[in-house]
Design the sequence.
């Protein structure tokens, strides 16, 4: 009897230990994921959009969730209808099939209901579209030019300063450390820097082929088209570092031209701007960390 009690206590202790480890692991994973979710980049086991830090982005996320509800209801209804038809009107249950060819009521219903669903979807859709293209008074203009395979940025109203942004590679002076450092394949040498709670007008174009400039946390995604300038705007209400990638197939290094944006408080932005004007205002794009070798290789490939 004592042996059985002792064995039961040992098993209970083991189960408690395993449960404790599992709870700790789950808590750690959730904590890490939440921490990563707040950095403006994707994280493991992510569901849904990244945390949205603009009013437009939150409106897009809400519209997405609204559509998901409608799609789920429609799908469940169709599946239930199919199951009912297979059960009610199979050959065994109906050895003599019905000769019915028309039903006016059903035809009216399945015509009107989809129209009503589309009208319900159209109202928030048009509101979102209007909000995206209703440009407020601009506080800062930034021009982004897509190249094979890096981005060039200009601040037209800030003494014409410009710079290139290339992906940091594992063999650079500052190696990419993965989860303990800059995010791999998203880290850049030069960040776009903008002030928080300001209206930023973004001008996007390309010098060679079609690229795409996007920051998922901003709700901004624009094709960069050679010979054309496309406009967008955003107003970020949370200080932080946000990442994106070229989202248009543009050649062999399509996966290696990330986008990095730092959102700073107004005093920090002004301090950065004062230094950046000295460093970038020469009119010649500045490269650092990623190395001129990468840029030269990209331009050589371009010219071939």
Sequence:
């Amino acid at each position: 009897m004592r042996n059985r009690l002792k064995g039961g206590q040992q098993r209970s202790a083991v189960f408690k230990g395993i449960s404790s480890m599992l709870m700790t692991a789950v808590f750690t994973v959730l904590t890490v994921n939440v921490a990563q979710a707040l950095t403006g980049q994707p994280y493991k086991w992510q569901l849904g959009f990244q945390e949205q830090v603009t009013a437009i982005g939150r409106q897009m996320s809400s519209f997405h969730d609204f559509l998901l509800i409608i799609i789920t209801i429609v799908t469940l209804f169709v599946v239930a209808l199919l199951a009912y038809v297979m059960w009610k009107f199979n050959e065994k249950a109906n050895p003599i099939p019905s000769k019915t060819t028309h039903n006016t009521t059903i035809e009216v219903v399945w015509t009107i209901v989809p129209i009503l669903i589309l009208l319900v979807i159209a109202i928030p859709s048009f509101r979102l579209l209007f909000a995206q293209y209703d440009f407020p008074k601009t506080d800062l203009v930034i021009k982004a030019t897509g190249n094979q395979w890096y981005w060039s940025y200009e601040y037209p109203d800030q003494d014409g300063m410009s710079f290139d942004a290339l992906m940091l590679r594992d063999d650079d002076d500052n190696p990419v450390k993965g989860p303990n450092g800059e995010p791999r394949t998203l880290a850049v040498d030069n960040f776009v820097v903008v002030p928080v709670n300001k209206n930023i007008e973004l001008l996007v174009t390309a010098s060679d082929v079609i690229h795409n400039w996007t920051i998922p946390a901003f709700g901004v995604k624009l094709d960069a088209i050679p010979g054309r300038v496309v406009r967008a705007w955003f107003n970020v209400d949370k200080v932080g570092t946000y990442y994106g990638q070229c989202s248009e197939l543009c050649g062999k290094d399509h996966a290696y031209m990330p986008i990095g944006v730092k959102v700073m408080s107004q005093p920090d932005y002004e301090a950065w701007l004062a230094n950046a004007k000295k460093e970038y205002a020469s009119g010649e794009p500045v490269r650092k960390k990623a190395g001129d070798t990468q840029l030269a290789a990209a331009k050589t490939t371009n010219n071939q």
